[in-house]
Amino acid sequence: MEDKTNLLDLSVEEIQQILSGIGAEKFRAKQIFQWLAKGITSIDDMSNLSKAFREKLKGISRIGMPRIKNKLVSRIDGTAKYLLELEDGNVIESVLMDYRHGISACISSQVGCRMGCRFCASTGIGFDRNLSPGEMLGQILTMQSDGGKRIGNIVIMGIGEPLDNYTSVLKFLRLVNHPEGLNIGYRHISVSTCGLVPEIIKLSQENIPVTLSISLHAPNDTIRDKIMPVNRKYSIDKIIEACKIYTEVSKRRITFEYALISGVNDSRENAMELGRKIKGMLCHVNLIPVNTVEGNDFRKSARQQTEVFKAILERSGIETTVRRELGSDISAACGQLRRSSSEGRDS
Ligand code: SAH
């Protein structure tokens, strides 16, 4: 099975290449690519291809779609959290939200994560491997088929650090944006990173103007070093420099994610320092009440503290929002994926 190519990993051109190996016409590649975007799970569903051709295709390829292992739906807001099993038995989580401008999908980019952010539940699960482009696409297709409504927005904010899986994430972005495929505009896609500076700069050169979300979570290196080990490699100043390059080249506004942790990064001084640092940038701050996860004792800031923090940033002219907590009853929120309730691959 594994030696057969996963069609979901392939661009139209790459499908053409494998087709030439079985003597098929080039134009079939586009048809196959279009079928895949419909979310079919079997090559036999490609009804405009002859049976004989489908057999040949099955001899060399497969559709490596994940399987829904479990699904939890929030009674509060309908947010659905999917536990998806990959072909090798690894389990990841993806979330489907009905939010503002239509349906949004939050997908994982790796099995586990190497970044070690102290407040994040993914830290405790270790790192297994990168996801392939088709495994990311498979998350979207599976949820779209199951939900029955077109997914219009994607955030790569599930398990993993997307820029630590740069090549596959880039290919996924191109696949999902392809006009013959799901045709989701780059402006409807957010890539969230803990701040891998060389990759942020590289991304700015790709002509893929996605929204970049930076998980900042601190106004200075002293605090950030403590909660995000990656900061010892790429300091806040370096990240901000990279963000300026990104906004200049892409003309896209950056989002700074800031999880408010009581007594750690949520004081008035912290807000003022953050304001000074990012003032004048093409950016927006998204405040997130931190989710307490098992194994650490970070607590979310009080509502009042959150409002004060927001007001101080706004006074510096920085647009600031407080993230709505969707799916709170099913642990669908950030940093809680996979770890909670039904657990990872051993379940
Ligand atoms: N690795 C990427 C994307 C995955 S995390 C990144 O770091 O951005 C998605 C978002 O959830 C990040 O902003 C992350 O910092 C945040 N997050 C992780 N754990 C959290 C928690 N316990 N509470 C609130 N936000 C959390």
Short description:
This protein has 347 residues and is an alpha/beta fold. The protein contains 10 helices and 14 strands.
Please provide a written account of the structure.
The chain is of the alpha/beta class and 347 residues long. It contains ten helices and 14 strands. The chain has helices at 12-21, 28-37, 51-60, 133-147, 166-177, 197-204, 221-227, 236-250, 268-278, 303-315, and strands at 5-6, 61-62, 67-73, 80-85, 91-98, 103-106, 110-112, 127-130, 151-156, 189-193, 211-215, 254-260, 283-289, 320-322. It has a ten-stranded mixed β-sheet with strand order 3-4-5-6-9-10-11-12-13-14. A two-stranded parallel sheet has the order 1-2. Strands 7-8 form a two-stranded antiparallel ribbon. The protein is elongated, with a radius of gyration of 21 Å. The two termini are 24 Å apart. The structure holds S-adenosyl-L-homocysteine.
Number of strands: 14
Write down the overall mean pLDDT.
93
* Main structural class: alpha/beta
How many separate helices? 10
Indicate the low-confidence ranges by residue numbers. 339-347
Defining traits:
347 residues; alpha/beta; 10-stranded mixed beta sheet; two-stranded parallel ribbon; 10 helices; 14 strands; disordered C terminus; binds S-adenosyl-L-homocysteine
What order do the helices and strands come in, and which of them pair?
Blueprint: E1 5-6, H1 12-21, H2 28-37, H3 51-60, E2 61-62, E3 67-73, E4 80-85, E5 91-98, E6 103-106, E7 110-112, E8 127-130, H4 133-147, E9 151-156, H5 166-177, E10 189-193, H6 197-204, E11 211-215, H7 221-227, H8 236-250, E12 254-260, H9 268-278, E13 283-289, H10 303-315, E14 320-322
Parallel strand pairs: 1-2, 6-9, 9-10, 10-11, 11-12, 12-13, 13-14
Antiparallel strand pairs: 3-4, 4-5, 5-6, 7-8
The chain binds S-adenosyl-L-homocysteine.
